[in-house]
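User: Quick sanity check before I run a bigger batch. Here is a single chain. Can you write out its predicted 3D structure?
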Amino acid sequence: MRKLYVTIVCAGLVCAAACTARKEEPKVQVDRTRLAAFKPLPLVMDAASNPLTEEKIALGRMLYYETRLSKGNDVSCNSCHNLNTFGADTGAVSDGFKGQKGNRNSPTVYNAAGHIAQFWDGRAPTVEEQAKGPVLNPVEMAMSAEKDVVATLNGIPGYVKAFKQAFPEDKDPVTFDNMARAIGAFERKLVTPARWDKYLNGDDTALTDAEKAGLVKFLDTGCHACHSGAYMGGTMYQKLGLVKPWPDTEKDPGRFALTKSESDRMIFKVPSLRNIEKTGPYYHDGGVPTLKAAVEKMAEHQLGRTLSAEDSEAITAWLASLTGELPVEYIKAPALP
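Assistant: Done. Predicted structure follows.
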């Protein structure tokens, strides 16, 4: 009888162990051949046109937080692209000089240096060129001219010294272009690796079963046609309202406002989905408040698909795996000269 009892107990333990093992195995399997369109983030988004040095990055960090680059001494790059809130503005549009409102949502600066171009309409090819725009924009930082920016910087001895250290080969290092190069150098290391990158690198446990199910739905729906690569977007332009016309085409015609070409009407740079969970409200005008609604509108207007509530929730769950780690030490606000 004792032998039978022991056998039963042992069998029960084996069964329990087997059940536990089965529970630990992932229930959702993703065919990894379908992930060929994606890549992990690079460690740095460098460019031969702007070699990175510690001195240049340190200067760029200071300039990124510097409000004296604005006419009212109260707006910096970080005002509209707050590095502690995933590099974006939490409002639909940002406040600029004397409280003026911009007309487009401030996109995140994290991972942006790897994109095909900058701004929603792609009018700046690099982050270095992008850094020049807001400083002189009358609605944003409102400095009157490049010479005024240079005069401001030359009037601060600490910056004169920092520019000499960052650009030692330049006879006159304090220039508007060098200001932009320094800010760009700092931004080229604003990379946010996420659990998604671990998954792409082969770690099947990096995503939950719910997230894997959402990934499959994302792929089945066809979202990866535009949101792919290392940045999950940012690599092409696309018409907003590709399949079903967008409801508001008069307020902002996209690249048409820049090129005046009819073929560019309602064409925008495809935004990155990196950190998308944290960078709402959504679209070029910040007109969609929730990520779930943004997913549903994309499926409807870009792909002609109507997602069920369950499907949109699944995709939204997977998008959370794209939320990365902020480089806390790197982005720490520096002491300004």
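The CA atoms of residues 253 and 328 lie 37 Å apart.

User: Great, the batch can go ahead then.
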